[in-house]
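Need a sequence for this fold. Nothing fancy.
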C-alpha cells in the first residue's frame, strides 16, 4: 500500500502480527487457550477467559524441568565427564581412564598376575605404545577409579 492510507494499513498490520503473534488466556480451571492477534481483534476470545501474564506465558511455553529431567541431564553430564578421564602415573605415562579402559586395565592386571615380571603392550591416551607392568596399570586404575568416584555422587 502507498500513501497515508497505505501507511495506516501497514501500521495496523504490523500491530496485528507484532512481536507476540499469540495471546494466551486461561480459564478458571487453568486450561490455556491461544489466540492470534486477528482473533483477539475480532473478539473471538471465549468469554470468562483471563489474559495470562508474561510470567505465566513463559512458564507455560517453557515449563520448569522435572526432578527426573534434571537427574537425567546430570547423569548424561557425569557420563561425559567419566568418558573424558585421563590419568598420569608416576612414570609420566597418561592413560585413558574411562570405564572401558578401567575394565581393560583390571583384566590386564589379573592376567599379568600369572606372569611375574610380565608386561603388556598398552596404548596410552596419546596413542603411543608402552610395555605396561601390572604395577603401573594398578596405579593408573586406582587413579582413574578415584577420578570416577569424585564424579559419581550428585552435588
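Here you go.
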Amino acid at each position: 500500500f502507498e500513501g497515508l492510507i497505505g501507511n495506516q494499513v501497514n501500521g495496523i498490520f504490523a500491530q496485528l502480527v507484532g512481536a507476540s503473534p499469540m495471546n494466551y488466556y486461561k480459564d478458571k480451571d487453568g486450561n490455556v487457550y491461544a489466540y492470534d492477534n486477528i482473533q483477539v481483534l475480532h473478539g473471538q476470545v471465549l468469554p470468562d477467559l483471563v489474559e495470562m501474564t508474561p510470567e505465566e506465558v513463559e512458564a507455560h511455553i517453557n515449563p520448569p524441568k522435572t526432578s527426573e529431567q534434571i537427574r537425567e541431564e546430570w547423569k548424561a553430564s557425569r557420563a561425559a565427564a567419566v568418558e573424558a578421564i585421563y590419568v598420569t602415573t608416576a612414570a609420566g605415562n597418561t592413560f585413558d581412564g574411562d570405564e572401558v579402559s578401567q575394565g581393560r586395565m583390571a583384566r590386564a592386571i589379573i592376567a599379568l598376575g600369572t606372569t611375574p615380571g610380565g608386561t603388556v603392550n598398552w596404548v596410552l591416551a596419546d596413542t603411543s605404545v608402552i610395555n605396561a607392568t601390572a604395577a603401573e596399570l594398578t596405579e593408573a586404575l586406582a587413579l582413574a577409579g578415584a577420578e570416577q568416584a569424585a564424579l559419581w555422587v550428585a552435588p
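For context: Residues 5 and 11 are 10 Å apart (CA to CA).
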